[in-house]
């Protein structure tokens, strides 16, 4: 594992790119300029235009090209995204804007495997090292959980190991201890393993990791049968992987005006998955909040407004968790509410509001979350758009705020879930099709955005922010009980990776 410091590489890229985007406020008169109208939902909504949202989205696409089509945290493209946001905000002279910078482990890779000219569907193990190995396959005895399972013939060869009993990491480390050049694990059922982790960054007490991949049970069984029948199988494992600490940042922007004892906070994550540019997930939320922030300088308001653009959400709510855990209890009490916007322009869009009162899914948020849910329900009624509740389970950046007992809410337009026939009637969508067919894929670009749904949702975000910037009526403001420990920070690195995306954690 190595440490990089790429955060400062493109500090000027975003600012330079921002020059063709109009900025409301622009420093004219500063935050205390007189005769500004009081913000209202209607007035702020009128300031939100799809053309500006799309301009921001196109900038994010351009940045992704700096990092081979991704804006994963700590990449040049992600750092350019942050510079772009902060540059535009700073030009307004309306916010106290800071980077909150910290290191976090980045582990990403891919694996391919072929044997005797045939290619196999292969998955990579988190923490697995990069490498390219061509060598005969040797069957490992039993399940490869003990050093004695590895025959002497495995030296310099590719160990073929069945899944089962012990964790993947132990098997791969024992292969390294036996001086195998690489390892292929096959499932103990017919299907693919589908993904997995070595569980720890390294295992010096067991052995060194070697380049490895995972294949299906059927493929593995066929290879075992051929080798057992006397056929030499020469395989090639090719692993591309990065395992390193990366410095990355949240952006925290607080209005210079408004009551800072009663802060209305809204957030969205700025990073994508490594597989793609993340323009719906979550460029749409990023751009929505940025555009609202650029229009707010035209107004006055009662309560201070704070925006959080979170890093490394795709690695397990890392940025929002870091913010909440480093905030003092006194400062937590000042945050009256938190509004979250993650994926608001899905191509086959639904309109899902977090179930703050628990009436639909029996998971109730902190007192005041019910009021936020109703505020957004009323907005969608006024917009003549059907809404539906979605589970308030902490699987996005609002999760750490729930742990801090801060009232929270928000909405999204759907991810990998499948739209039902009834929902298709509500939203003029396609039944039996994912809300976002490009969820966590390379195709999550400009063409993946549903612009009509996005403008409805962006105006909805403006409605929520303007409503609570005016008044916190309905939100309890007596001192809250001390915050619980942020649940995400108690999980292992691998568990956190799956927290944000809802994936299954594979081990043995």
TrEMBL record:
Q: Is Cytoplasm a UniProt keyword of this protein? A: no
InterPro entries to which the protein is assigned, alphabetical:
M28_fam (IPR045175), M28_SGAP-like (IPR041756), PA_dom_sf (IPR046450), PA_domain (IPR003137), Peptidase_M28 (IPR007484)
Could you confirm whether the keyword Phosphoprotein appears in this record? no
Q: Keyword annotations for this protein?
A: Aminopeptidase, Hydrolase, Metal-binding, Protease, Signal, Zinc
Q: Which GO terms describe its biological process?
A: proteolysis
Q: EC?
A: 3.4.-.-
Q: Which residues form the PA domain?
A: 133-223
Signal peptide, first to last residue = 1-18
Q: Which Pfam families match?
A: PA, Peptidase_M28
Cofactor (UniProt): Zn(2+)
Residue span(s) of domain Peptidase M28: 250-453
> What are the GO MF terms of this UniProt record?
aminopeptidase activity; metal ion binding; metalloexopeptidase activity
Q: Which family does it belong to?
A: Belongs to the peptidase M28 family. M28B subfamily. Belongs to the peptidase M28 family. M28A subfamily.
PANTHER family, sorted: METALLOPEPTIDASE M28 FAMILY MEMBER (PTHR12147), PEPTIDASE M28 DOMAIN-CONTAINING PROTEIN (PTHR12147:SF26)
Instruction: Write down what this protein is called.
Output: Peptide hydrolase
- This protein's species is Hebeloma cylindrosporum
């Amino acid at each position: 594992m190595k440490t990089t410091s790429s955060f400062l590489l493109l500090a000027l890229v975003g600012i330079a790119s921002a020059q063709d985007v109009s900025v409301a406020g622009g420093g004219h008169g500063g935050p205390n300029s007189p005769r500004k109208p009081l913000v209202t939902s209607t007035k702020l909504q009128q300031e939100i235009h799809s053309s500006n949202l799309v301009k921001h989205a196109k900038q994010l696409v351009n940045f992704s090209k700096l990092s081979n089509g991704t804006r994963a945290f700590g990449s040049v493209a992600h750092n350019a995204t942050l510079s772009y946001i902060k540059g535009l905000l700073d030009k307004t002279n309306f916010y106290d804007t800071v980077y909150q910078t910290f290191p976090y482990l980045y582990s990403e890779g891919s694996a391919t495997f072929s044997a005797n000219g045939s290619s196999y569907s292969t998955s990579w193990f988190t923490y697995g090292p990069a490498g390219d190995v061509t060598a005969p396959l040797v069957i490992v005895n039993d399940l490869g959980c003990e050093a004695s399972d590895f025959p002497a013939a495995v030296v310099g060869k590719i160990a073929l190991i069945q899944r089962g009993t012990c964790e993947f990491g132990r098997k791969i480390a024992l292969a390294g201890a036996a001086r195998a050049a690489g390892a292929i694990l096959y499932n103990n059922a017919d299907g693919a393993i589908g993904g997995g982790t070595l569980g720890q960054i390294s295992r010096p007490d067991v052995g060194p990791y070697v380049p490895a991949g995972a294949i299906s049970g059927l493929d593995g069984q066929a290879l075992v049968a051929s080798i057992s029948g006397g056929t030499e199988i020469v395989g090639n494992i090719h692993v591309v992987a990065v395992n390193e600490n990366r410095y990355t940042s949240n952006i925290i922007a607080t209005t210079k005006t408004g009551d800072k004892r009663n802060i209305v906070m809204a957030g969205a994550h700025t990073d994508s998955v490594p597989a793609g540019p993340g323009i719906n997930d979550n460029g749409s939320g990023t751009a929505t909040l940025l555009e609202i922030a650029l229009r707010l300088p035209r107004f006055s308001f009662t309560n201070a407004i704070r925006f959080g653009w979170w890093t490394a959400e795709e690695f397990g709510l890392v940025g929002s968790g870091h913010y909440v855990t480093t905030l003092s209890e006194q400062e937590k009490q000042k945050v009256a509410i938190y509004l979250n916007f993650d994926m608001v322009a899905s191509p086959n869009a639904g309109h899902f509001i977090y179930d703050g009162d628990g009436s639909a899914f029996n998971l109730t948020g902190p007192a005041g979350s019910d009021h936020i849910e109703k505020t957004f329900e009323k907005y969608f009624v006024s917009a003549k758009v059907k809404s539906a509740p979605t589970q308030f389970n902490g699987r996005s950046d609002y999760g750490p705020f729930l742990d801090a007992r801060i009232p929270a809410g928000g909405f999204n337009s759907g991810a990998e879930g499948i739209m039902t026939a009834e929902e298709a009637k509500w939203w003029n969508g396609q039944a039996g099709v994912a809300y976002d067919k490009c969820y966590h894929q390379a195709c999550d670009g400009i063409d993946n955005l549903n612009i009509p749904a996005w403008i409805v949702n962006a105006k909805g975000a403006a409605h929520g922010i303007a409503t609570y910037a005016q008044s916190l009526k309905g939100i309890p403001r007596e001192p809250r009980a001390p915050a619980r420990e942020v649940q995400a920070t108690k999980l292992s690195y691998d568990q956190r990776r799956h927290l944000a995306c809802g994936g299954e954690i594979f081990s043995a």
